[in-house]
Design a protein that fits this description.
It comes from Casuarius casuarius. Keywords: Metal-binding, Zinc, Zinc-finger. The structure is a single chain. By secondary structure, the protein is an alpha+beta fold. The chain has two domains: 101 residues, Zinc/RING finger domain, C3HC4 (zinc finger) (Herpes Virus-1, 2-Layer Sandwich); 100 residues, Zinc finger FYVE domain-containing protein 21, C-terminal (PH-domain like), CATH 2.30.29. The protein has two helices and 13 strands; from the N terminus they run ββββββαβββββββα. Strand 3 and strand 4 form a beta hairpin. Helix 1 packs antiparallel against helix 2. The chain starts with 9 loop residues before the first strand and ends in a 6-residue tail after the last helix.
Length: 230
């Protein structure tokens, strides 16, 4: 276990929104997580915030667990997984939020698992002309990019500023490209300038190429998709 994973214990907590499995220490929280939103107070919400239906004894009000707004049952009937808030079970969400959460499900079910399983790359630090074969993976608490070889690096995800995916095989008509590496820039605490790392896929076996390309695609999704805190 690396130092960045030493405080991964979790606890079960209950809120008005449902059961959540959260890290015991806030410092171990995933950078992809979201805080529960404050609910719009009942007294400030006499009508559905989507269709404007008036609430009464028959038309009850419900709060979306993702945005905290108040809706009627028709406008807030979907129960959808919300891993970014660590809910144990699917929770009630409005139609707009449910769509966003459903799109994020693929990220949590696929890309995160790919990143945590890791892939092997030749890693070059800064302007060095030497590269080192390293296993690169996302830590179990999702806070660090961990690189293991003869050397060891732990890069905090929130310190990564840019990720440039390197490809080959471009054709005039487009398509038929595959990811072969990436250039990553990140901030080292206390340093004024960004540090750069270049990752190049190992060419030893075709299976390694496919795994590396899949890992790089997932890394790109983290940087520009569901990956950062809102």
């Amino acid at each position: 276990m690396s130092g960045c994973e030493a405080r991964d214990a979790k606890k079960l907590v209950r809120s008005s929104s449902g059961l959540r499995m959260v890290p015991e220490h806030r410092s171990a929280r995933s950078p992809f997580g979201l805080d529960e939103p404050p609910w719009v107070p009942d007294k400030e919400c006499p009508r559905c915030m989507q269709c404007d239906t008036k609430f009464d004894f028959i038309t009850r009000k419900h709060h979306c667990r993702r945005c905290g707004k108040c809706f009627c049952d028709k406008c807030c009937s979907k129960k959808v997984p919300l891993p970014r808030m660590c809910f144990v079970d699917p929770v009630r969400q409005c139609a707009e939020c449910a769509l966003i959460s459903q799109k994020e499900t693929e990220f949590y079910d696929r890309q995160l698992k790919v990143l945590m399983n890791g892939a092997t790359f030749f890693v070059t630090l800064g302007t060095s002309d030497k590269s080192e074969l390293m296993l690169c993976r996302l830590s179990n608490n999702q806070r660090y990019l961990v690189l293991d070889g003869d050397s060891h690096y732990e890069i905090e995800i929130v310190q990564i500023s840019t990720v440039q995916i390197l490809t080959e095989g471009f054709t005039p008509g487009g398509g038929n490209t595959r990811a072969i590496g990436m250039i990553l820039q990140y901030k080292v605490p206390g340093a004024e300038e960004l540090t750069q790392m270049k990752f190049t896929a190992s060419e030893d076996f075709s299976s390694n190429k496919k795994l590396s390309a899949t890992w790089l695609a997932a890394m790109h999704k983290v940087s520009w998709g569901a990956g950062r805190e809102e």
